[in-house]
Amino acid sequence: MMLIKGVRLYGEGDPVDILVRDGVIAEIGPWLDAASTQELTDVEVIDADGLVALPGFVDLHTHLREPGREDTETIATGSAAAALGGYTAVFAMANTDPVADNAVIVEHVWRRGREVGLVDVHPVGAVTVGLKGEKLAELGTMARSQANVRVFSDDGHCVSDPLIMRRALEYTKALDGVIAQHAEEPRLTVGAQAHEGERAARLGLAGWPAAAEESIVARDCLLAKQTGARLHVCHVSTAGTVDVLRWAKERGTKVSAEVTPHHLLLTDERLATYDPVNKVNPPLRTESDVQVLREALAEGIVDCIATDHAPHAPQDKDCEWSAARPGMLGLQTALSIVVETLVRPGLLDWRGVARVMSEKPAEIAGLPDQGRPLAVGEPATLVLVDPQARWTVRGTELASIAGNTPFEGMELPGVVRTTMLRGRVTVSEGKVQS
Ligand SMILES: NC(=O)N[C@@H](CC(=O)O)C(=O)O
Ligand SMILES: [Zn+2]
Ligand SMILES: [Zn+2]
After folding, report:
1. Do both 20 and 159 map to the same domain?
2. Model pLDDT for residues 259-309, shown as the tens digit of each residue
3. Three-state SS at 55
4. Which of 54, 67, 188, 401 is spaced 20 to 30 Å from 386 by Cα?
């Protein structure tokens, strides 16, 4: 049994105590004092004075690199990074080696996640065999496997053939799943290295036009509307995509979208140093894109935050710009970037943080026991955040094996103190409890 003392639910109202019994929130009350808890033996008390309680975060977009690149991240190290970031569930992308395009691989990832036990690891199934975009993978077999796959994605690649995309949407509709699309028209991004615009031109980097993203999002929204299937747009990066999403939602399309913390804070101004730590797909865009993305998230046109946590080895990152792999770490810095870019400027309150980091992603993925309200009878799957504290990001101190964080050296607001998964403390005082 556990007693969380003096915490503010969603950062609202007066502090309360939360009694956790058998993995469930058993009581919430103003000062469950000694008298009412005296007869309870074995009560572990967590002093949460000044902290904010939120439902555990859910990341729809994580790269865990196992199997295949365990030199950069494993299910164990990625789970630790997730728990430290306040996450209680993550979706592990399919672009592993071998690709997660069949029941054997997704069950392996699912089982390994359970063994580690720090967060619920849900494998994402590939849409096409080998992420090649040519032939549909066995979506039904993955859905019916122990891993119970409902989110399918070729992330890293775009399902660019419209006929394959249409079929995939039809199949996932029948499976009650969703396709998460990496929206990139490959014919428009051949050799692309940076956001197409003035800065890329000046730096001599081949451009990735906004239309490469927006044209696929528009096409997919039309296909989703026509098939009645659910579409999720990965890592939205441009203001134009927000316009397309607004239009599609207004006409009743079942479309949801995510934005990454790095696209909410960083711009292509960063590229001036040619430091590949800033190289990512889709590329960092402009100040006005960043502003529009922040507002779209606050308004709900963009539904949620997803990290696109993408660990890479030093030899794949510390090299010349054009040879470096795209991607950045995100799990342990996500909350702080959300506080910095949305909470502090007044675009989102803590209720809103719960919505974009927990409730919405759980709903999009169809998870019944994540993103639940902090209420009696609900699972004790939650995070305690210190809203006042600040910390300095050091890549070498993060739990990931790789250290490719673009936020190196930044002092950021918001510290995760405790993470709890169904009553089990996975992180305490900022330390993983294994
Ligand atoms: N975001 C990235 O730049 N890289 C991702 C793939 C992806 O999300 O497209 C990766 O797997 O490294
Ligand atoms: Zn992607
Ligand atoms: Zn990704």
Report:
1. no
2. 999 999 999 999 999 999 999 999 999 999 999 999 999 999 999 999 999
3. strand
4. 401
The catalytic position among 308, 316, 318, 349 is 308
Whole-complex ipTM: 0.99
Give distance in angstroms: CA of 247 to centre of ligand 3. 25
Q: List Cα–Cα distances, 132 to 106, 156, 164, 249, in angstroms.
A: 18, 11, 11, 30
Strand partners, 431: 428
Q: Do 130 and 242 reside in the same domain of the chain?
A: yes
CA of 158 to the centre of ligand 2 (A): 8
Q: Are residues 282 and 223 in the same domain?
A: yes
Is a pLDDT exceeding 90 seen at residue 36?
A: no
Amino acid letter, residue 91:
F
CB 230 within 8 A of CB 177: yes
- 182 within ligand 1 shell (Cβ under 6 A): yes
C-beta neighbour count of 206 within 10 angstroms: 14
In this structure, the answer to whether residues 149 and 267 fall within a common structural domain is yes
Q: Would 81 be classed as within a structural domain?
A: yes
Question: Counting atoms of ligand 1 from 1, which one is nearest the CA of 280?
Answer: 3
404 known ligand binder: no
Check pocket membership of 308 for ligand 1, CB cut-off 6 A.
yes
Identify whether 220 is a catalytic site residue. Answer: no
Domain span at residue 72 reads 56-365
Of 365, 394, 422, which residue sits at a domain end? Answer: 365
Distance from the alpha carbon of residue 326 to the mean position of ligand 2, in angstroms: 10
Query: Is 290 a member of any domain?
Result: yes
- Contact between residue 218 and residue 205 where contact means Cβ atoms under 8 Å apart: no
- Per-residue confidence at 42, pLDDT binned at 50, 70, 90? confident
Say if CB 305 and CB 371 are below 8 A apart.
no
Residue 371 lies in a domain: no
How many domains would you assign to the chain?
2
Q: Tell me the pLDDT tens digit for each residue of 116-141.
A: 999 999 999 999 999 999 999 999 99
181 lines ligand 1 (CB under 6 A): no
In short, whether 282's Cβ falls inside 6 Å of ligand 1 is: no
- 332 shares its domain with 253: yes
For the record, the structure tokens of 102 come out as: 């069949």
Does 282 show up as a binding residue in the annotation? Answer: no
Is the dihedral angle over the CA atoms 128, 130, 135, 136 positive or is it negative? Answer: negative
Domain identity same for 105 and 41: no
What CATH number is associated with residue 278? Answer: 3.20.20.140
| Residues 168 and 277 both lie in one domain | yes
Closest ligand to 325 CA? 1
